[in-house]
Structure formats: structure tokens, C-alpha cells
Amino acid sequence: MLGLMALLLMATPATARKYGETLRILAIGNSFSDDGMEHLPALLENLGIENVELARLYIGGCSLERHVKCYNTQEAAYEFYHSKAGENRWVKSEEMVPMQHALEMGEWDIITLQQVSGQSGKYESYVPHLDRLIAIVSKAQPQAELVWHMTWSYAKESTHGDFPNYDRDQQKMYDAITDCVHRLKKEFKAIKNIIPSGTAIQSLRQSAINNSPKDFTRDGYHMSYDIGRYTAALTWCSVFTGIDAKEIDWLPAEYLTIGDDIDAIRELCKHPKVVAVGEIGLDYYWQDNPPREFQEWVFRKQIELALELDLPIIVHDREAHGDTMRVLFEYPTLRGVVHCFSGSPEMARELVKRGWYLGFDGPVTYKNAKKGPEVLAETPLDRIVIETDAPYLTPVPYRGKRNDSRLLTYVIEKLAEWKNISPEEMERITWENGLRLYGLENKI
Q: What domains can be seen in the chain, in order of their start residue?
């Protein structure tokens, strides 16, 4: 508690000082600063604050040392997100940018820095890189106030590769991070303020609402999309606006009903005819779909429900192959089928290696199904299921008309051709696969 109070006293609200009409804040960071800032525009909008401009430079797992290197080489290695004053919404740059891109966007009032999480409790990793980064930023933006973003310790059962550096002890890691923050505040006079996200999260972990062993993370180290990111955003907002977090009653709208929705799905799954949870997954094709972060958060909630109920899942993956694979592989006991598989042969190989089924639909009959034979070559016969996706994805020769299960014959014939077996054999095998996938053996 004394450590918490000390760090909160070190964090002085930005509104206590004078800036221009618009407060401009730039974060030079990584995924942890992304976690802290993601909800800031919506939070400011809810508070009626329209004179704050936000930007963030992102490289996943980026250390102080790498930031310096990227600047010196002018490497266009950063994803860049920008929220204009008065608009309060993130817009991602279409192209990767160098650090210079952000530093040349006029005068920033505040620039935040941070160390990569695994090194944040190792003070020797700060030297000489923090000195050099401060020099770079101060030369480009001499008027800017530098603020340090304090990161958080990992979840108790985190599998992060750097956790052994702290003996896989959450409290030990937190104490090490806290010591480093106190030390850099004392030794680096250019650092004028602290965003105590690590302390806010650690304090919350001591409360009754902690979801140990996840500890408000989604993967053992990044913040969960609900309470974790929300708490981090409140911490950032309090430092820069002076508003007491206890006085903020805003919640991201998308998180308000998901608990009720999951409960409703859980009840529906009790019906004896329910054999799987799906389709669930990620869809990056449509621009008006929910944000990717929210899609992934909901996807994980649905996966966790399927695991709770010991049901397979049916995965929807549209132009989201990398994120879909990453999420699925974080749940080793999860099972199911990737519906209407459209990934690469390499992706197919990795999925079947882990026991997944792949779904094949009408598109295998299309003229542009050039990678279909390559994907099927990586898919053992006992991992193939056929699907309709009715009323869509109608196979040739009825493409363009309404699809239904009567047309599965054309999918079977094409798969049989590629596997060099008879259609009758392919029909028998895929029927048995479907029964096994959905736990219907000896029931039909």
C-alpha cells in the first residue's frame, strides 16, 4: 500500500499545468502502451473532453534499445495510430512509419516512454538506452514533457519467456518494476511524471474481483480486453485530466451485455441436440465489423464457454488467419473444425497436427481454387469434413443459385478427385469424420 501511495503521489495530473488549447500526447511504446491507450478516445468522448489529441507508435515487444536503433536507422517499423482532437477515435496509418514521422507532427505537449515488459524490472536494461532515447526525443521536441509509463507484472501462471527472470513470481516482478520506476524518477530528471498502470493493476489483483490465475490478462501478460484495458485507460486518463477514476462511471458499450449473452448461450447449449459452439471467430473483411480487439475478446469468451461445456467449436476465419491461429493455439485442449477453410497449406499442416478438422465447401469447385489441391494434400482423410454454408457458396454448376445440402455431391466429387479415391469412399469417410467431430458416433 505504501508503494501504491508513493507512485500515485509521483503522478501529477497534466491539467495542473498550462498547455495550449489542445493537449497533444504521443506514446512511444509497444503492446503495453496499446493496452493502456486503446479506450482513451472513447473515455474522453464520454467525459466531454474534445481538446486532447492522441497518437501512439507501436512495435510489439519493443525495448528502449530497439527504439533507439529504429530512430538511428530511420526504419519504418512502427504501426501508427492517431486520434484527432474533437474526433476521439483511433485511425491507423495505412503504412508503417519511422519514429521521425510522429516527432515531426508539430509540437507534442507530452511524450510517454516505457521499457519492454520483460526488462521493465531489470534496471541494467535501461542504461544507456533510456538516456539516448531521452536525448533523441528532447532534441526533436524540446518543449515536450516526458512521462514514464509503468508496466505491470505478469499473471501468476504466465508462460512468457521472460518470467523466469523473476523466478516466475508475480510479486517479485512487480517489486522489481516498482524499484526501477523509483530509481529512474530519481536519476532521470527529464522524466517529469509517472503513469502508474502497473500499480493500478497490481492493486486490483488484491481485490475480490481478481480472476486469478489470469490476473486481468488475456494471455498471461497483455491486459484482458475488459477489466484489464479498462483499468489501464482509467489510469492514463486520471494522470492526464486530473479526474479521479472513482468519479468515472463510463464503460465500453460493447462490454456491457456480453456477460448476459454468454449466459444465454450457455443455457441454449444445454439442449441435447447441441453438438458444438459456432460459428464463432474473427472476420476482418467487412470494414463496419466490430474492432478486431473486441472480436478477439468475444471469441475468447465463446471458446472458454465451449471448453467449460466440453464442446467442439466451429471456427469462422475470414482474412484473419494469423490472429485465428494465434488464439486457437493458446488453448491446447480446444477441438473443432475451421469452417470453409481458406488458409494456406502451411496453416492446414499446423492445424491438423494439433487435431483440428478442416471444412471444405462449394469454393473447391471454382476455377480459382488453385491452392485447394495443395491444402488437401496436407489434410489427412480423417480430418476432412464437408459443409454447405447454405444458402451461400453454392458449388459449380449451380453457382449463383441458392445452396443446400443436396449439392454436397459436387464438393465430394472434387475432393475425391484430388485425393484420388472414389466419391463413395470420400462420402463414407467424411460422414464418419462428422460423427466423430460432433460426438455422434453410435448415436445415429
A: 2-252 (3.40.50.1110), 255-437 (3.20.20.140)
